[in-house]
Write a structure and sequence with these properties.
Blueprint (H helix, E strand, L loop, with lengths): L1 H18 L13 E5 L2 E8 L2 E8 L6 H10 L15 E7 L4 E8 L17 E9 L11 E3 L5 H13 L4 H31 L2
Antiparallel strand pairs: 1-2, 2-3, 3-4, 4-5, 5-6, 6-7
């Protein structure tokens, strides 16, 4: 059984490498520096007196509906539809001279993706906003967190503009999806390779 499993994994790895779009991770325009730690990626950008970091994790970033559609609609000779990784991401804005970090928790609403032609709509939304002490690894549940569900739309628009002014806009979000999808695929291939070594290990 293990031999067959290892053979299956070998074929699967070859297939995945064939459809791999990016041999190296795509860049995000606008002077963002990328750091990757396993499944977590961090983009960092410094502008006058501020540091902006955007963090996301590719685990569980592929919407479940995409995987089901892929299995149902596939005819034997068809290429599998591309799976896209749309992770939640957290934007932190740190001003040099304050002890607080503004934290905006953003996500890609599932129903928004793929609706092209609607120029006006943003492809990501802000879910929560809070202040956290700068430099502390653990955020406190005791800090007030603003949920945007019931937020005054004018304030919400200002928050979106605030992000856009710092380079976090639709273009950035598109590039983040591309980066995340490439990273997810790279990690998936690595996982298959590790699994193969594990299965073959006697």
């Amino acid at each position: 059984g293990d031999k067959a499993f290892a053979q299956f994994l070998t074929d699967e790895i070859q297939e995945e490498k064939k459809i791999q779009k990016h041999k190296s991770l795509p860049k995000v325009s606008g002077g963002w520096e990328l750091e990757v730690h396993g499944t977590e990626a961090k983009l960092v950008r410094k502008i006058a007196g501020e540091k902006i970091t955007v963090t996301f994790n590719i685990n569980n970033s592929i919407p479940p509906s995409a995987e089901e559609d892929a299995q149902e609609q596939q005819k034997p000779d068809e290429q599998e539809p591309e799976l896209t990784s749309t992770p939640n991401f957290v934007v932190e804005v740190i001003k040099d001279d304050t002890k607080h970090t503004l934290v905006l928790d953003c996500h890609f609403p599932e129903d928004e993706i793929g609706h092209e032609g609607e120029e006006e709509s943003d492809i990501f939304t802000i879910r929560e906003v809070s202040f956290q002490p700068t430099g502390e690894a653990d955020w406190k549940d005791t800090n007030y967190t603003l949920n945007t569900d019931s937020l005054d739309w004018a304030l919400y628009d200002h928050l979106m503009d605030f992000l856009a002014d710092r380079g976090v806009d639709n273009t950035f979000a598109d590039e983040l999806i591309e980066l995340s999808t490439a990273l997810e695929h790279q990690e998936y291939i690595k996982f298959l390779e590790d699994l193969k070594s594990f299965v073959k290990c006697q």
